[in-house]
Design a protein that fits this description.
Helices cover 73% and strands 0% of the residues. The protein is an all-alpha fold. The protein has one domain (5-69). Helix 1 crosses helix 2.
Length: 70
């Protein structure tokens, strides 16, 4: 299932802002990490309806992915 592109962009913005607030990273850093993440790829491609998950869940997944890269 694919999401409405406008709604998906708004979801991205909320997730990036939440991720930035929870990690202490800047919005620019968070945005860069988000667009280079597997989480973004899953959301963009509609895999497992990841875009239907809560913002908090997606931000947590992004944090986990970021921690693995460190």
């Amino acid at each position: 299932m694919t999401a409405n592109p406008v709604l998906l962009q708004k979801k991205y913005a909320r997730v990036v802002e939440l991720f930035a607030n929870e990690t202490g990273l800047s919005l620019d850093e968070s945005l860069h990490l988000f667009y280079g993440s597997k989480v973004y790829e899953l959301m963009k491609n509609g895999v497992s309806d990841m875009h239907c998950m809560s913002d908090g869940y997606i931000a947590d997944e992004l944090k986990s992915e970021h921690a693995e890269r460190l």
